[in-house]
Amino acid sequence: MATIGSEDTVLLQYARETDRLILSEDTDFRGADPELNGEHHPGILACNTAASAGEIAAAIRRIEMYTDDLAGTVLYVPGNWL
């Protein structure tokens, strides 16, 4: 099972096994690690650490309204979703 501080590969494997999206502040999930870019995953939401919790929640609600499948996608939140 993945826990806080787990390696990215462990988190990605757990996300695939449980079909769960990753919400992360980790810059590796923003495309900084070329090894992670080609892997299939249920989706990654990379958070802007300067955004408030309310802004992130509002962006996630908007994303949910417009898409039901984020597989293989990396989105930046809040990004342009506010």
List the helices and strands and how they pair.
Layout: H1 8-18, E1 22-24, H2 34-37, E2 44-47, H3 53-66, E3 74-77
Parallel strand pairs: 1-2, 2-3
What does this structure look like?
The protein is α/β, with parallel strands linked by helices and 82 residues long. It has one domain. It is built from three helices and three strands; from the N terminus they run αβαβαβ. It has a three-stranded parallel sheet with strand order 1-2-3. The protein starts with 7 loop residues before the first helix and ends in a 5-residue tail after the last strand.
Work out the radius of gyration.
Answer: 12 Å
Strand order of the largest sheet: 1-2-3
Give the CA-based shape: globular
Q: What's the pLDDT, averaged over the residues?
A: 81
Beta-sheet strand percentage?
5-15%
- Structural class of the helix and strand makeup? alpha/beta
Helix content: 25-40%
Number of strands: 3
**Biggest pleated sheet:** 3 strands, parallel
Number of helices: 3
- Residue stretches low in confidence (pLDDT < 50, at least 5 long) are none
What's the number of domains?
A: 1
Report how far apart the termini are: 33 Å
SSE string, helix = H, strand = E? HEHEHE
Short structural summary:
The protein has 82 residues and is of the alpha/beta class. It contains three helices and three strands, in the order H-E-H-E-H-E. It has one domain (8-77).
Keywords:
single chain; 82 residues; alpha/beta; 3 helices; globular
